[in-house]
Design brief:
Layout: H1 3-15, H2 20-32, H3 34-53, H4 63-73, H5 83-101, E1 110-116, E2 119-126, E3 129-134
Antiparallel strand pairs: 1-2, 2-3
Helix pairs in contact: 1-2, 1-3, 2-3
Length: 140
C-alpha cells in the first residue's frame, strides 16, 4: 500500500469502518511510514475537535411524520411526460420548414415534376438553374 492509498483509507475510516483486511493494511503501513502516522494522528485530533465543537442535530419525535405528510400534501411538480416529444416535434417542424422554404436562397427550394413519354422525372431547381435530376423507381 502506498501513502496516497493509505491516506484515502484513513479518511474513509471516519465515514465508514474499514474491513478487517483494509484495517490491517493501513495499520501495517502506518507502522512503517512516519508521514502517514502523523497524517492519521492529525485526522484523529481534528475529528475529535469537530465532534466536540459541532453539536449533533436533534430532531423532534414528530419530524419524520410531519415530513411524510408534507411530501404527500405538496407533490413535486414534474414536467409532463409528453413535453420531450412535443419539443422534438416542434424542432423537426421548424427544421423542415426552414429546409422547404429556404428563406436565405442558398439551397434547393423548389421541385418541378416533368413528364415525358410516361416516364416521370423530378428536377430540382436553385435560383432558376437546374441542379440535378432524380429518377423514380420503376415499380412496374
Amino acid at each position: 500500500m502506498d501513502c496516497q492509498e493509505a491516506q484515502e483509507r484513513i479518511l474513509e475510516a471516519f465515514v465508514e469502518p474499514l474491513g478487517a483486511d483494509q484495517r490491517q493494511s493501513v495499520d501495517n503501513h502506518i507502522a512503517t511510514c512516519g508521514t502517514c502516522r502523523s497524517f492519521a494522528e492529525i485526522q484523529r485530533v481534528l475529528d475529535a475537535r469537530l465532534v466536540a465543537a459541532v453539536p449533533t442535530a436533534r430532531l423532534s419525535a414528530g419530524f419524520r411524520t410531519s415530513l411524510r405528510e408534507r411530501i404527500r400534501r405538496d407533490p413535486v411538480s414534474a414536467w409532463p411526460d409528453f413535453l420531450p416529444d412535443l419539443a422534438h416535434l416542434a424542432g423537426c417542424s421548424v427544421a423542415t420548414g426552414v429546409a422547404v422554404c429556404d428563406p436565405w436562397g442558398c439551397g434547393l427550394h423548389r421541385f418541378d415534376v416533368f413528364s415525358s413519354s410516361g416516364n416521370t422525372s423530378l428536377l430540382g431547381r436553385t435560383g432558376g438553374r437546374r441542379l440535378t435530376q432524380f429518377r423514380p423507381i420503376n415499380r412496374g
